[in-house]
Amino acid sequence: MTGLYIHIPFCRQKCRYCDFPSYGGVDNYIAPYVKALCREIADSDRDHPGSAGTALDTVYFGGGTPSLLSLSQVEEILTAVRHYFAVTGGAEITFEANPDSLTAAYAKGLAGLGINRLSIGIQSFQPGLLRTLGRIHTADEGKAAIWAAKNAGIDNLSADLMYGLPGQNLRDVDADLKELLALPLTHASIYSLILEEGTPFYHDVTTGTLELPPDDCVETMGQAVHAAMEVAGFEHYEISSYARPGNRSRHNTKYWQYVPYVSAGVTAHSFWHNCRQAHIANIPQYIRLAGQASLIGERVEIDAKRGPEDYCFLALRMRDGIDAKAFKDQFGTTVEAEFGTVLAPLVTQGLLQQTRRGYALTEKGLAYGNYVFSRFIR
Ligand code: SF4
User: Fold this and answer.
1) Which Pfam families match (predicted)?
2) Which of 206, 240, 224 is nearest to 168 (CA)?
3) Whether 248 and 327 share a structural domain
4) Which member of 188, 275, 288, 338 has the lowest number of beta carbons within 10 Å of its beta carbon?
């Protein structure tokens, strides 16, 4: 079934490592942007032909910081979604929130609107690391936000955590994991920092003001994360994602399993009728054009060559890996016929393993994911 991603590109302040499409200090755009989102949703057939009225079993508000919207703005968007699509009973409706804007009253309001899953940007519980990252919340506010959501009756709760940070050591990672595992979470996304060009972090690291931990230390941190999460009963089901049984992110799983999804909002991506599309990035232009003209800035048709490549490198992000039967059903050929010369050496190197379903990353392959994925691009 289809999913809908809605992008909210506003943040209180830009974090120092972040190159996501989000902007601080442009709150004056929030109200007209919400109206524009509703117009785009009503006009969904224009850029996603045949999508109007489609059954949705996942809706995902991502950002940016969706929790900067007022509850009435969230309601306005959800009303449009429910009116122009067919949101199924029991649909997973996820909302990303940051601790500085997730109060008890706000969490209660979200629950009342039918939001049943929250993804909360914690990143660390160490005050020094939060400051280095440029986060505007404290460790206590992070914990309070998660409890506020739980007390509001939202049981499906995910938190984001980072490692491989400047000045961080293994003891910090262990301390963060201990704090995380004391919270009522069903899911966690735990990422190693990626240094993105153009960010203040990139400048500070390249000029020597900040120093990242060495690669072997980051690898050890990753192993500590996997071990602690598994001991705590979380399934490591995707490179950076951990879930208690039955609590995988249904929406994100669509991305990795080649399932079509639609989207709304600046820079939002979709996969629809074998096209990967990215929305325009300019907020004033988006506000002007929504409901009147196409909002797609980039469209790539997924042809017979690109389809199997996409399928494999996305599927391999999940520990379940490539499903050989699903691959054959999708492309009419076997994964070995398409990628035999890629698969065999990766298996020999111990990076991939053959499973009952097909092929999956090994424990060793997890640390070299990007190399493995790149082998599938021809
Ligand atoms: S809150 Fe999230 S999206 Fe916003 S600047 Fe920080 S990391 Fe980026």
Assistant:
1) HemN_C, Radical_SAM
2) 224
3) no
4) 288
The pocket around ligand 1, CB under 6 angstroms, is made up of: 11, 14-15, 18, 20, 22, 63-65, 98, 121
- Write out pLDDT tens, residues 162-220: 999 999 999 999 999 999 999 999 999 999 999 999 999 999 999 999 999 999 999 99
Shared-domain flag, residues 157 and 65 = yes
The boundaries of the domain holding residue 329 are 306-374
User: Is there a single domain that holds both residue 345 and residue 202?
Assistant: no
CATH number of 204's domain? 3.20.20.70
CATH number, domain of 313, equals 1.10.10.10
Burial degree of 197 (CB within 10 A; 0-12, 13-18, 19+): exposed
Q: Residue 147 falls within a domain, yes or no?
A: yes
Read off φ and ψ for residue 90, nearest 5 degrees: 80, 10
Q: pLDDT digit string (tens) for 222-234?
A: 999 999 999 999 9
* Residue to mutate, 8, 18, 23, 68, ligand 1, most ligand atoms under 8 Å from C-beta: 18
Nearest-atom number in ligand 1 for the CA of 134 is: 6
Number of domains into which the chain is organized:
2
What are the angstrom distances between the C-alpha of 220 and each of 161, 163, 224, 234?
Answer: 16, 10, 6, 19
